[in-house]
Design a protein that fits this description.
The complex is a heterodimer of chains A (about 475) and B (about 100).
Chain A lengths: L4 H6 L1 H19 L4 H20 L6 E3 L4 E3 L1 H27 L6 H18 L3 H19 L6 H32 L4 H11 L3 H17 L8 H8 L2 H27 L5 H22 L4 H22 L2 H28 L15 H4 L1 H15 L5 H15 L3 H27 L13 H19 L2 H11 L1
Antiparallel strand pairs in A: 1-2
Helix pairs in contact in A: 2-3, 2-5, 3-4, 3-5, 4-5, 4-11, 4-14, 5-6, 5-11, 6-7, 6-11, 7-9, 7-10, 8-11, 9-11, 10-11, 10-13, 11-13, 11-14, 12-13, 12-18, 13-14, 13-17, 13-18, 14-16, 14-17, 14-19, 14-20, 16-18, 16-19, 17-18, 17-19
Chain B lengths: L3 H21 L3 H26 L3 H31 L13
Helix pairs in contact in B: 1-2, 2-3
The chains are: A mainly alpha (about 475), B mainly alpha (about 100).
Amino acid sequence: MDVYISDILLNAPFEIVVLTALIVLVLESTRGTRPNISSWTSIGGLSLAAVAALTNLGASVETFGGMLQSGGFANYYGALFCISAVMTILFSRNYFERQNYHRGEAYILLLFATLGMMVIAASNDLIMIFLGIELMSICLYVLAGLFRHRDRSNEASLKYFLLGAFATGFLLYGIALIYGSTGTTNIASIRTAFPHVSHDLLFLTGSGLLLAGFAFKIAAVPFHMWAPDVYEGSPTPISGFMSTGAKAAAFAALIAVFSRVFGPSENAVHQIIALIAAASMIAGNVVALAQSNLKRLLAYSSIAHAGYMLVGLAAGTADGQIGVMYYLAVYALMNLGAFGIIGALETENDQNLQMDDYAGLSEREPVLAACMAVFLFGLAGFPPLAGFFGKYYVFLAAVKARLLWLAVIGVLASLMSAYYYLRIIVFMYFEKTKAESVPISVPMSVRWTVIFCAVLVLLFGLFPSVIVQTVLRVLF
Amino acid sequence: MIPLQYYLIVSAVMFVIGAVGVITRRNALVVFMAIELMLNSVNLTLVGFSAFLGDASGQILVFFVMTVAAAEAAIGLAIIIALFRKKLTVNLDEINILKW
């Protein structure tokens, strides 16, 4: 159980993020709040951590006495979280300024939330998964209520906190029961013990409670009720971060626990995941049809996307896992970009968020409108874009695993989703600008970040093998 | 020695009381107390298993849970205070701007 230098070197991305967070914390508390310096320091640290993660995509190695599993799998997610956080900060800088929030503390919380996500993806022990989830969630509760003088932000924060802590209770009880039935919290040891406990009531109850806890974090039906309220009330770039980073982190934990412990064998857990997936796809898309507030619409769409990704997990095969990991990466780009644009166009007091506020956007802001169209087509899953291949891979995995009914529901649900995504595009391109709409100046940094996301969505759609090859390398 | 089942039954009952409290009570502070009850019932389960199995890692997890619960209490109360200053209520039924 000794700590070796190699452990420290293998976990370099973590240490970079921790150091950056501590530096920003000290800077903020000693030299007065300076959002500019804090944000650029955070961006620098996170970029460095992303590079450090991407340089080590080799096989996974157990570090720190088997608590963490460093290497490809953890680093793939680590890079994903760091890049999402960098984009979130790039969008937030301008957003906070326009919302009259001139403080740098948000970046500290973002850094620690990112760290929590990275811990989840790297954990090889249920204790680490719990700590990672809590580190991430506690920072996100505060970030949701960042605008503490606004009713909506307060309410989002309280709802997220109460329901999140409630879900933590279930997660922990699940961990306790699994520990009781197997005598260990180490995921690899639970895997070895699995054949002896696979019909143990204690173990199955524990797994069910653990699944409920994770389903809450990815906002899957029936544990999705918090998501629309929280995404609508939170500061917009933070909503984007929660819907991509936090979701990807919970999926990493799901893959780590359920795929590693249960394996591809057909069993009750995969059937339950399939049912959750079907319910999320249907409920998310049906309710999204009725929404006119874009943040809320994207919240319901993110519930539906959690459903699509769960289809890959329900298949329980390696193909499914590859599909989910590809989907998570491209979904992060599309959703961050979409939330970035919504945040850039939002005016004070939560105005300019309705669908008809986007009428005639193609005349006022041709570049942003084009990028938004790319993201929405991608989310709807139109062929040349990255979103299509994400859905293709998970549905294909479901068909191969003889879950044809689930794939059919998935395809029908994404057809339904095309309606509300296209409706926004119709407003942007075929409606006249409202007379009372105020012109908004969008700074270059936000423009370039959005364009960067859109180009990546196109590129990963044209060349999906870039990501798939990386995923194959880190998984096997 | 008291058998393990007794600890498990007590903690399961505590957990259910906590969960029912979260669902039925409308005061944010009481809901939060119910959540703490759930976490403590988990701690009891963990300590029971840990003593029964003769394995320390369950008790180590309890320390982590207590630390996290303290952090959560700090954040939770701060959020409730921020909300109370704005709305002068902690009744969850009156906190309802966000809905579809």
